[in-house]
Amino acid sequence: MSSITFNTDFIPVDPAKSGAKDEQELKRLRKSCTDFESLFVSKLLTSMRSTVGESTLFGDGMGSEVYQSMFDSKMAEKIAENGGLGIAAILYKQLTGKDMEKTLETEPISVKKLIRNIPFKPDSSTFERISNFHPVIKSAAEKFQVPMHLVYGVIAQESSGNPNVISKAGAKGLMQLMDGTAAELGVRNSFDPEENIYGGVKYLREQLDQFNGDTELALAAYNAGPANVEKFGGIPPFSETQNYIKKVLEYADIYNKKLENI
Fold first, then answer.
1. Which of 19, 129, 244, 259 has the fewest Cβ atoms surrounding its Cβ within 10 A?
2. Structure-derived torsion over alpha carbons of residues 201, 206, 210, 215, reported in degrees to the nearest 10
3. What is the maximum span of the chain, computed from C-alpha positions, in angstroms?
4. Which of 74-88, 117-131, 157-171, 224-238 has the weakest average pLDDT?
């Protein structure tokens, strides 16, 4: 089996030594330990698969590697969340002197956990699906100073409010983040609605800043890339991009009126 290497920069320090003893810090420590184990299991699965060299569950056609990677990532996440190999619990005990299971028992249900458990309903309206994530959208919009109805419009056009969608090009989640872009934005799991929304809104803010607050150019950059906007000195002559801008702004206008009642 090939060697496995992974980044451990996010492993927390001992709170007893740093003085960080509040509940939020303990939650952050627990999540970091669980993320570490998830990453380890994911790397282990990938390494085992490359050693065996057999076909994946998703065949050998176009996109199979993307789906396999998504499957491995979710499997690793579930294994870690359910106790897994015990690595997370050992790390947490070593760093805090506390038993992780006891902390989990007393932890209140967070908005993020509630959002994670929202099922995708294809028969519901796009606005209804997106509004399930309203608290996160509102928070991200306020943090990055992006109009909330514009975020709604982008999500509507990108994913129709489906947090599990993946495009043919490999873009993932509500705001359709490519893996490279997600990594640059600090998004570890593009299928996590909260991470995806914060990452997508942050990226949209970057495009607005780069193009002097011009919404149409920012949307063009979000869709076709800022390099193409600069190359053509404006909205690229791509029918897909031009239609994308039109649809996002139409959605945003409609949802702006709806959001007045929320």
1. 19
2. 0
3. 60
4. 74-88
Which of 77, 158, 194, 195 is catalytic? The answer is 158
The pTM for the full model equals 0.57
Q: Three-state SS string across the chain, please? A: CCCCCCCCCCCCCCHHHHCCCCHHHHHHHHHHHHHHHHHHHHHHHHHHHHHHCCCCCCCCCCCHHHHHHHHHHHHHHHHHHCCCCCHHHHHHHHHHCCCHHHHHHHCCCCHHHHHHCCCCCCCCCHHHHHHCCHHHHHHHHHHHCCCHHHHHHHHHHHHCCCCCCECCCCCECCCCECHHHHHHHCCCCCCCHHHHHHHHHHHHHHHHHHCCCCHHHHHHHHHHCHHHHHHHCCCCCCHHHHHHHHHHHHHHHHHHHHHCCC
Residues of the chain with CATH 1.10.530.10: 113-259
Average per-residue pLDDT in the chain?
77
pLDDT number for residue 35 = 76
The Cα–Cα gap between 134 and 148 comes to 9
- Angle of helix 23-52 relative to helix 87-96, nearest 10 degrees, comes to 150
Structure tokens belonging to residue 120: 């995708």
In Å, how far from its chain's centre is CA 163?
9
- CA angle, corner 242, sides to 226 and 237, nearest 5? 70
Residue range 113-259 forms a domain whose CATH class is mainly alpha
In 3D, which of 145, 157, 118, 158 has the Cα closest to residue 134?
Answer: 118
Which tokens hold the place of 218? 């920012």
158 annotated active-site = yes
Which pLDDT belongs to residue 82?
Answer: 56
